[in-house]
Amino acid sequence: MGIMKPKSTLLFFIVGLSFFWMSCGTSKKSTAPVISGSANVPVKRDSLVVAKDTTPTIIPSIHKLTIALVLPLQIDAHFKNDTNPDGSPLILPEALQALNFLEGAKLAQADLKNDLVNLEFKIIDTGSDSLSTVKTLQTASLKGVDAVISLLSPMYFKASVTCSDRLKKPFYFFYGSNTQILENHPWLRLASPSNNTQIRQTAIFMAEKYPASNFIIVSREQRRENDIAALFASVIDSIRGKSSGTVIHYKSDGWSLLKSKLLKNKRNLIIIPTSDESFLSSILNKISEVKPIIPLCYAACPVGKLLILLIPN
Fold first, then answer.
1. Is the pLDDT of residue 113 over 90?
2. Does the pTM of the predicted model rise above 0.85?
3. Which of 80, 96, 137, 224 could make an S-S bridge to 163, C-beta 3.0–4.6 Å?
4. What are residue 21's phi and psi, to 5 degrees?
5. Would you say 271 and 232 are in contact if contact means Cβ atoms under 8 Å apart?
6. Residue ranges of domains in the chain, CATH in brackets
């Protein structure tokens, strides 16, 4: 015997309630209301007083969280090595992953405000020197934080374990694979994100955030890029319940097909999973000649770079 679905339960409840009121309405006799404890003395309907609802209104509470982000941002090195302060700011390649992570954290911070979560970050820049990084983990003031997220390399795993024991708050460490160590260090959390999971979550977010957009996924007909492009398309298609847009195999389809798929009456959202910066730049230059570009998201992905462009209609 199957379990009745909620909607079916509600339907039977409404039907039953309707028959109840119908039976009351067709009854030939009417009985005056009786107050318990009054010797069954009938009371006139007009004398009844309906009690006022004094149930207090529940106001949703705002959850406050403070997260410490331990990142090798190398801010001092950026300014020190920037020999042309009047031009574009220098970005060290080895710090790019930490900078992207910080940007994603700030996007999450803004998005969680809608869910009544007041998320604050305490950013700790460890720099690039190994000795200073270990010293920072040993002496950093982490008072008042609810958890720590570290993007340090595996070489700092032991120092991070010691830091988690000292702090006695959840300490999330990426790249850790020795799960046996968790038995003796209860505050340590090992995070090993799946590439496919990250891509799926990104695709779901984009499909739900911009459901009416024109999605275009561009790949160079290389296996890894094709796999990611196909995954994006399938997830977006399942969320939207219709065609996911267009998958452009740039090597055979070329710029002419991509240009023809840019719609004038819709928001165009282009996803380009690639590790070839020259290929990426060439497409950006061509697109910029057709429509203005507003960067929507820029993040690391398994093939090096994942660029999502939002081209306004």
1. no
2. no
3. 137
4. -70, -35
5. yes
6. 63-75+91-192 (3.40.50.2300), 196-311 (3.40.50)
